């Protein structure tokens, strides 16, 4: 199915990272931009979330709104192909500048399976005690060095 969304061959990073990611152990993947890290961790996310469960099961923390938008687009593109015969995975993008009040309402009524958030927006939601992460199976910190330097 990956071919249907434009992915033809695994990159070197994916060949090395996927077995480690799917082993269930904590992992650190360090590689250049454009090397395929995002697809690698999103494949892991899709493999562990239960689309019938209304709970946050994966949290992806990104350093910038722009990267968050990019990751969200890739997620939705994959979801459209992977989930044609089952309930769609809801993804919520908590990115700086968004309408967090509306997101808080959504989180209370029907939490998404996946949240993609900037650190600032994530902290705002945690401060309001709106975000429940007790069902979380996967935590991804994308561009960790950039997050810590900002």
TrEMBL record:
Organism: Genlisea aurea
Keywords (A to Z) from UniProt: ATP-binding, Helicase, Hydrolase, Nucleotide-binding
Database matches in Pfam families: DEAD
Official protein name in the record: RNA helicase
PROSITE patterns attached to this UniProt entry: HELICASE_ATP_BIND_1
Matching SUPFAM superfamilies: P-loop containing nucleoside triphosphate hydrolases (SSF52540)
UniProt domain Helicase ATP-binding: residue ranges: 18-150
Family matches, as InterPro entries: DEAD/DEAH_box_helicase_dom, DEAD/DEAH_RhlB, DEAD_box_RNA_helicases, Helicase_ATP-bd, P-loop_NTPase
Keyword Plastid part of the UniProt annotation: no
Keyword ATP-binding carried by entry: yes
Record-listed E.C. numbers: 3.6.4.13
